[in-house]
Structures are given as structure tokens and as C-alpha cells.
Design brief:
Layout (H helix, E strand, L loop, with lengths): L7 E4 L2 E8 L3 H9 L1 H4 L15 E6 L16 H6 L1 E11 L3 E6 L2 E10 L2 E9 L4 H22 L7 H5 L2 H8 L3
Helix pairs in contact: 4-6
């Protein structure tokens, strides 16, 4: 893992990640909006691709890879039962921009074509506390690592293997 893999604070309640993915842009867009493709790296569920549209995210971290690893104790119940989040599309400009609610915060996905693929810029804004920023950063870091593997046609490691000690890294990186 390189230093550029880590998300960085871009404002007091905001973290940004960038990943270069293989194109074309339409393929990467499908990983954001298509339930089956999104379910391979983040969470499945329907999405109405219009402003104000409903989004249902069904998280089941253990299913993001055929490799199975027990979760940390604090995530055991969520890993067994899964988690459903109901959100809203705040802005959508296919195939370049998707903004959606994330509880009281919001997530922006920007796609920018580059000569070697498509740059995904993910910005999570309005995080309520440093603790939330640390946990959220660890989660996005892990999900994006799995997306990179899937987009490149590779089988990712188990979510909890990738997650490993990443939160500890963000605990050290995000200023107190």
C-alpha cells in the first residue's frame, strides 16, 4: 500500500480518496449505480438515478469475497445480519457525478477519464466527529481496495483481511 492509497482530510469534516481504475468510464459508472456491480465491492440494492431518488444499500461485508475471515468482535453482529441503509440521490450527472446522502453526511463520486483509465474521486463530507472520520476512512479505504480488485478482474481478499489494522492507520493520520 502506498501513501497515495490513504484518504486525506480536505476540510475539518471531510475526507477524500482517489483511485485509478480501468475504463471505460461507463464501466466504472456501473460499479456505482448497478446493484449487482455495486454489491461486489460496497453494497447491493436499488438506486433511482434521479435527484431525490431512493437508494437502498444492503451491506454484507462477508460476501464481498469468496475468502472468509471472521470480523472483529465489534462488527460480528453486523457481519452476520448485514446492514441496510436508506439514502437519497442528491445530484446525478451520468456518467461523471453521483452525490448521495449517507445518514446525516454525504458522499460524492466523481469520475474523470485519464489516459490510463478513469480516476474515481470519492469525497465524504459533513462527518460529525473525528471518531466518525477515522471509522469512515477505514471503511472507504477497504471498500475501494476491493473495488480496485474487482474492476481489474481479480478476486479480492476478504473484507476483514483488507480492513485489518487500517483504522489504526487513520487514527494516527487524522489530527486530534
Amino acid at each position: 500500500m502506498t501513501d497515495t492509497d490513504y484518504g486525506r482530510m480536505t476540510a475539518p469534516a471531510e475526507v477524500r480518496f482517489e483511485r485509478l481504475l480501468p475504463g471505460p468510464i461507463g464501466t466504472v459508472w456501473e460499479f456505482l449505480v448497478d446493484s449487482d456491480k455495486r454489491g461486489q465491492w460496497l453494497a447491493s440494492g436499488p438506486m433511482e438515478q434521479k435527484e431525490g431518488g431512493a437508494v437502498e444499500l444492503r451491506f454484507q461485508h462477508r460476501d464481498l469475497s469468496p475468502h472468509k475471515v471472521a470480523p472483529p468482535e465489534r462488527f460480528k453482529e453486523m457481519d452476520e445480519k448485514g446492514h441496510v441503509s436508506r439514502e437519497r440521490v442528491l445530484r446525478v450527472e451520468p456518467p461523471r457525478l453521483l452525490v448521495m446522502s449517507w445518514g446525516p453526511s454525504e458522499v460524492t463520486f466523481e469520475l474523470v477519464p485519464e489516459s490510463k483509465g478513469v480516476r474515481l474521486i470519492l469525497t465524504h463530507r459533513k462527518l460529525s466527529s473525528r471518531a466518525e472520520m477515522v471509522q469512515t476512512s477505514g471503511g472507504w479505504h477497504t471498500h475501494l481496495a476491493i473495488l480496485v480488485e474487482r474492476a481489474n478482474g481479480r478476486v479480492p481478499k476478504a473484507f476483514w483481511t483488507v480492513f485489518g489494522t487500517i483504522e489504526q492507520d487513520y487514527e494516527a493520520r487524522i489530527p486530534k
